[in-house]
Amino acid sequence: MKKNWILILTGLLFNLNLLGQNPDLDYQKYIFDSLAVINDKDGYTNVRENPDLSSKIIFQIKTNFIFKITANSKSSWKEIEQFGLKNRTGFIHESRIKNLGSLSNNEMRELSKLILDSTIILMNDLHSLNQEGMYDTTKHRDLHKEFSVYYHFQMYPALKLVSKYYCNTQDRKFLNYYLDFLVETKGTAWEATSFAIGEIFGCDSENVIKEIYKRSNFEKEILKNDLEWGIQGEPNENELKLKIEFIEIE
Questions:
Q1: Which end of the chain offers a freer environment for a tag, N or C, measured as fewer CB atoms within 10 Å?
Q2: What residue numbers bound the domain in which 64 lies?
């Protein structure tokens, strides 16, 4: 599984100049150490032009928006990069930053659910424009760009939180939430979503099979296909393949 995530995440991040000159960067270390959210009860944090409290505020980052810490300096002020249609950089005091790797189980669950829910909303909005015949319009192009940025820089990291949270907790309610997400996003060819359920299957195949088995044949087929794709590259891939066969479709 690790090599599959490396192909997706390292390839994506390297192509977008987020890895700089270090293509061997460990992808999990990058996500959990270099990506972060704000830690501010006000719901937003000011980003300043220079590492000083009196420096000009150039933009703000809201709660639950993932950004990158560009360097691990010893200074209490950290340079950060906010991903968007145009990336923006600035400085935030370290007291207002929480690395993804330091999130509690509850925080991982809530952040990943919020991001996946937002992904569905953007996807459905884009689909609605397609159905209305607005494919080649400025509105469609702008929304497509927004969705692409959100998909790459918010959803991708959130999927690692999904698998980490479940493997920490075996939260069956959350598992079913994610299975619903996979069914709703069927046909998108999003490989990373399959890899997340593959990682979950690797740490708790018994309960994944039990929950999938309760579903309709239509959903079983979708989820079984996701599993078959998602376990590729796992150290015990052959063993997991045999377990997937227990999911019978009538």
A1: C
A2: 23-101
